Amino acid sequence: MTTTDEIENQLLSPHFRLAEFLHSDVAEKHGIVLEAKPYQICNMRQLCRKVLEPLRNAEMHPVTIASGLRNVELNRLIGGAQLSQHLKGEAADIAFREQETAHRYFRFIRDHCDFDQLLLEWKQGSIICLHVSCKLNTKFNRHQAREYYAR
Fold it and tell me: Quick one: fold of 4-149?
């Protein structure tokens, strides 16, 4: 029998664990338990292989996921898009400490990775989010990269 700890500590790639995609401060605050389905785990592995591992290897230090997998309830609380790729395990929001880091991550992913969407979200003059997604079938990746100004 597999324990919750074994599932959450499952490696998706050499530097990323499933637990990183399942952690959410908003989910904890509202008592929401996130569980990944097998197809979502496959999608998260692809995102790690195609985007997060190359970024981590280029940066030579940990890359932190601020928001990974979401269920419908959590996505609604966060104000995510109704058809958010976070629901499928295809997307992650990457944390950063400095705006220059977010710009560097954005440029690296845009120029070196196979991705579907890459959004650098601004609000009130500050970057608040770097969102990246990747589809399992990469021939459908759109390579949409843009800065987005939230209201």
Answer: Muramoyl-pentapeptide Carboxypeptidase; domain 2 (3.30.1380)
